[in-house]
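quick one, two chains, predict together pls
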Amino acid sequence: MRERAEANLKDAEETVKLKVFRYDPEVEGKKDPRFDTFRVPFKKGMTVLDALIFARDHFDSSLTFRHSCRQAICGSDALFVNGRQRLGCKTQMSELEWPVRIEPLPHAEVVKDLVVDMEHFYDQMESVEPYFQTDELPSGEEQKQTRENREKVKMSTRCIWCSACMSSCNIAAGDNEYLGPAAINKAYRFAMDEREGEAMKEHRLNIIEQEHGVWRCQTQFSCTEVCPKDIPLTEHIQELKREAVKSNLKFW
Amino acid sequence: MTLHEHDVIVVGAGGAGLRAAIAAHEEGADVAMVTKLHPVRSHTGAAEGGINAALRDGDDWELHAYDTMKGSDYLGDAPAIETLAQDAPEEVIQLEHWGMPFSREDDGRVSQRPFGGLSFPRTTYAGAETGHHLLHTMYEQVVKRGIQVYDEFYVSELAVTDHDDPEDRECHGVVAYDIKSGEVTGFRATDGVVLATGGDGQVFDHTTNAVANTGDGPAMAYRAGVPVEDMEFVQFHPTTLPSTGVLISEGVRGEGGILYNDEGERFMFEYGYASNAGELASRDVVARAELTEVNNGRGINDEYVHLDMRHLGDERIYDRLENIIHLAEDFEGVNPVEEPMPVKPGQHYHMGGIETNENGQTCIDGLYAAGECACASVHGSNRLGGNALPELIVLGARAGHHAAGKDMEAAQVPTGPSAKSEDETSLETPVSPGEIGVDDDVAADGGAIADPKAVVENAVERERQRIEELLERDGTNHAEIREDLQKAMTENVNVFRNEEGLKKALEVIRECRERYQDVAVADPSRTFNTDLIHTIETRNLIDIAETITLGALAREEFRGAHWRQEHQERKDDEWLKHTMISWNGGSPDLYYKPVILEGENKEYEPKVRSY
């Protein structure tokens, strides 16, 4: 592939440099983190992911990063690009300052190169009872839901679990037990869904009101800024705070 | 050696795998999912359009079955198609009961919309992101049930006994490579293994499929002795973005989107490709129409056509197709509210796959398959839009139930080499297919190992040696081989096919196979070695590409998604039969089995398929 790369580079009108974070705990020379530079041919429409794939397939097959769908739905390739959390596949190289610096997501343990350990993120997501719960189901037909209610939860259901928000959150960085924006958004998705009923909503508000829940959020909006699916995460957290207060007042 | 043991092992965690796991769990089985991606990363999430199910007055399963059989160009098996149509409504209601956020009507019921080839608007949807919601909703149910998920474990081989006759073989588990730790691990399944590995679009260079869709399930099952069925039938979706292959949902046309050529003509009508249905004709019809326009000099930049939805108005677009705006902007730099989108056909879905019956069983005892990796066959030679998601949930559930021992009606679709009705005797290939240096004299040793645990342990040992060798030796990198394979397939085995091109493709595939003999993994690491994973995948791609091309060369007719320049008509007298390829110890055997057109209440009569 190196020969093909040379040919590609020669033919290219423009080339771009990537500075990519490298680390492998068991390979000599990579145990100490470093940055490698790759020069790749630039093409209109090229994404950060395209550039990484080119570098891997043509120069260094050990360059490691997660990716799958290439269309911002699998949520595998959240990266720290030029100092900001972004999805590699939906970030155009042309929109960035060159050279482009690519690092693994901050505030997560690096497994290798750009791959971080996602276990903590998954644990937080799964701690909010992230599944639909209701006792009353009509037999043989669907439950009814108003268009307004579906619209209400729509944005919250778009989460692709990329963890960009969690990585951007200062509170989550300082408090490892903080549920984080994505998990709270998941709770919102169910708490606001009228099909679950009032009792379940109470239960869900209790979960997010815990010590490491919504009240930790200091509304810095960093999660909302980096969300690749434009989910208004901070607003959702704020709304849950208001709902929790309302619900607590009811029992006074 | 680490050896995990569960009742049912599900390989892959997209729609079919998740539904199979839930179903097996419903039957009381101890289930584990083994998957190379975390479940929410699966490519089911990219499905946009919807789920066909006869839910409403005026519609019924028989209409759905009829549409599906017609869409299949009479190559689907009636028992499988009718099962799909009968079970789909209940499965869709089940998804709603699990909380899936479907789009809604004013009366609060789930919305349905028209889709290509349907006689009733029965495509149930959740915006233009139906697959995403289906995937997440079912994963939520897996979490709720506490089903164990081994994520980022790459299943690289099946643990199957080595009896001479594949129909005597038994599957006792799988071998998986733990991507994070580098350990080769055995998984023993006491009741069954369900393959749900999804698509194999990476065989082609322009595809809507994810990078992970490398046909691992079909390739492993094929080499273990399960025949693959109708592999030549590959669906090319008519509306993919030219620069990336990203899919633009059929929902755009369902809502009224229009296709134009470079001269601004609405060519689907103007040139009579589909004078009644127009843009909503079956996918194969639209894909061929687009490329015919391009080949006749009426394409835009000699490459694509335009899909215009501006006239639908902002409100309707934002309400029902918002996701399309983001896709067109992010991946093609076009705002579809202001200008038409460039689109061209791209590999999208594989109708062919692992031969199963309507309960998901293969001819190997204990081995099941469901979803895109399988072929039951519900889609025949062409899948209708909106029929993939019901396939995942209906056949996923059935495979999971059966694997866990549920008492079910015996299947009617026959499987295995004993279903053969005819040998292929006249196929001439420029190079021999199959394993390099295979020695016909060495037969399997007749199933000497009977102990299930030993079968798994032996498979683990074989895989460990293979992986060690790939890591230790010096040789060529797989990426160049993969690239050449993909290019040859898109050039020669695409929408339009001819004998010369197909033979050329077989030659390239053979060369790729020869080069793969010297393949090696440059990354020495045991930690998250994606170089190794991709290298193993590339071998699977070679085997799958070969079966697609062999089937395409053998089938001398035009049916559904398979078009041949020398044979531009459907030949029912000769070709109402499934193309089957059996690995046969490395010397592939091509044969046929009949199509079943006899349904529960009626016989489906092949008719001219016009839209």
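Chain B is about 35% helix and 15% strand.
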